[in-house]
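Quick one, probably user error.
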């Protein structure tokens, strides 16, 4: 890490006002704090991170320094190799910062096959941590078990269910499954009899005594009533009256409460039916018109329900927990036991080519089992389900879902609002900003709804790539519609104060943003100035100066002196007047 990078990290911490998920600050005035072991474990088990010793978070991240940085460096390196398992080898350096010495350690994440990293003294079950927000959270015994299971491919779905035979399978689902396999893959199943096909697909497995038994996957995919043997391998749907749950005023605990059972194809159908029965319809703006739609698009709901049922943890420790769907006035939550598996993370969920299945045999099976009452198979969108979810939400002009991976569980939350309602469309139009892209309008609508965006959430909401997202966000900042806090990976964007004021719909009294041409022309006067000099004189952001200089040059009131591609280009007035602020301004 360079000194400049350290200065940027600290500056962003001061802006944010707290530690972040990949940076931990400790004063360390009396030597290495005991809690440092927890942070090292958490960084190693999550995405890695930076540990800074010699800063005081309680006093605005002021530098207190390390009295003996050489000894601190040696002690930290020794602790990483002797107190942590597996041993950690962070890059540790001493930096001079604001007149004092800081010790900075860059801790890499360890390979999945080596997780969890834990404190030797506490042991694996009590000494393993993960990073959650700006803190370190100890893993439960169940979460440690899940991490250990993720070192390889879990086989819980292939376990035999004692006493279950072909008579316990739904004959209609089973026949549809067999017919599809023989039709789509005759090279593998065309010449096999019924029992041989079921063995090859692992619907039937060896029971350990040489006889056939139905597997857990076979029972969940094709069984008549799997809950007879696994009562909690089901789904519950609850519709709550308030955003906090029960209504304490009326005493109503819920508006609807449904227990959904049966094989997975049936549970998918019944869960969607329960959600649909509790949804309302509303109007959204589509192009130049309006369309009636459900509160939540069905493709997104279907993918969320299917993923929860198919990817849930099926180990013995989790068979007492069910998939949960909770509907509130402001959101819908789908949650399942077991977090993300393999290389999949919240950050890369929607990326093409990133796919991993905890229950690989069950998922493979359900690619050829239709949802009850239809022809669509349960896992029709294997590998693209999250992208389908995001695309359907964008088409409905809704915010992207929030994904929460807590190792022991995984949740998807759909906010219940449409971004482009009539009121929001009118609000965006009242800004009087020409040249805004559709994705920028969607982002403004999301911000108007109270969201705070970063590059990743902007991409999720709009579907554009990272390069376009960066350019469009910077353009919104230059237009003074959006303010940026932090830089680079810490950059966050929210509406400017003027747009959240009581008169935000008409910032300058005429329905448009403030006009900066007078300020720039006054700053130029008779001088010839660079863009940076104009920014210094006016107090405006560089991007804002660049934008309004473009407007003035297009109108012919300002001209550039020198090559326009040079960062040192100067500008001067031409003496020509410009359109008064009451006229529209083109971009």
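Nope, works fine. Designed sequence:
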């Amino acid at each position: 890490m360079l000194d400049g990078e350290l200065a940027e990290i600290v500056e962003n911490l001061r802006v944010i006002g707290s530690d972040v998920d990949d940076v931990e600050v400790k004063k360390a005035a009396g030597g290495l704090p005991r809690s440092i072991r927890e942070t090292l474990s958490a960084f190693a088990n999550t995405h890695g991170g930076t540990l800074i010793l010699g800063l005081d978070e309680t006093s605005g991240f002021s530098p207190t320094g390390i009295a003996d940085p050489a000894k601190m460096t040696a002690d930290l390196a020794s602790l990483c190799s002797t107190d942590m398992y597996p041993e950690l080898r962070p890059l540790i350096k001493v930096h001079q910062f604001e007149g004092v010495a800081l010790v900075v350690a860059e801790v890499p994440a360890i390979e999945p096959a080596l997780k969890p990293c834990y404190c030797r003294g506490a042991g694996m079950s009590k000494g393993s941590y993960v990073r959650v927000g700006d803190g370190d959270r100890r893993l439960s015994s169940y979460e440690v078990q899940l991490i250990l299971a993720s070192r390889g491919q879990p086989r819980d779905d292939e376990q035999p269910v004692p006493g279950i035979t072909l008579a316990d399978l739904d004959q209609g689902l089973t026949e549809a499954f067999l017919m599809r396999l023989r039709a789509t893959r005759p090279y593998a199943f065309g010449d096999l009899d019924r029992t041989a096909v079921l063995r090859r697909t692992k619907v039937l497995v060896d029971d350990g005594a040489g006889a056939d038994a139905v597997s857990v996957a076979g029972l969940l995919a094709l069984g008549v009533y799997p809950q007879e043997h696994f009562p909690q391998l089901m789904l519950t749907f609850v519709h709550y009256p308030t955003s906090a749950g029960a209504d304490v005023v009326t005493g109503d605990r819920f508006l609807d409460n449904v227990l959904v059972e049966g094989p997975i194809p049936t549970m998918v159908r019944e869960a969607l039916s329960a959600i649909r029965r509790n949804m309302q319809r509303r109007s959204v703006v589509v192009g130049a018109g309006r369309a009636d739609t459900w509160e939540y698009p069905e493709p997104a709901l279907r993918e969320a329900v299917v993923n929860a049922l198919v990817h849930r943890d099926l180990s013995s420790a989790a068979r007492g927990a069910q998939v949960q769907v909770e509907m509130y006035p402001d959101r819908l939550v789908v949650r399942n036991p077991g977090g993300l598996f393999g290389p999949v993370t919240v950050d890369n969920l929607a990326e093409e080519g990133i796919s991993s299945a905890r229950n690989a045999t069950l998922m493979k099976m359900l690619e050829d089992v239709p949802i009850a009452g239809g022809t669509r198979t349960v896992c029709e969108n294997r590998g693209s389900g999250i992208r389908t979810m995001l695309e359907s939400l964008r088409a409905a002009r809704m915010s992207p879902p929030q994904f929460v991976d807590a190792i022991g569980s995984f949740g998807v939350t759909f906010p219940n609002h449409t971004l482009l309602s009539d009121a929001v469309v009118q609000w965006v139009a009242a800004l009087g900003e020409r040249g805004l892209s559709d994705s920028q309008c969607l982002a403004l609508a999301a911000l108007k709804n109270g969201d705070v965006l970063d590059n990743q959430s902007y991409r999720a909401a709009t579907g554009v790539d990272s390069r376009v997202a960066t350019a469009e966000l910077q353009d919104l900042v230059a237009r003074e519609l959006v303010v940026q806090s932090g830089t680079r990976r810490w950059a966050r964007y929210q509406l400017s104060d003027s747009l959240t004021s009581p008169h935000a719909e008409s910032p300058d009294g005429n329905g448009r943003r403030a006009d900066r041409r007078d300020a720039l022309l006054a700053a130029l006067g008779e001088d010839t100035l660079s863009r940076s000099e104009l920014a210094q004189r006016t107090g405006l952001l560089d991007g804002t100066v660049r934008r309004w200089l473009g407007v003035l040059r297009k109108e012919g009131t300002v001209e550039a002196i020198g090559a326009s591609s040079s960062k040192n280009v100067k500008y001067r007035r031409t003496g020509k007047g410009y359109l008064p602020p009451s006229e529209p301004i083109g971009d």
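The first strand starts at residue 23 and ends at 26.
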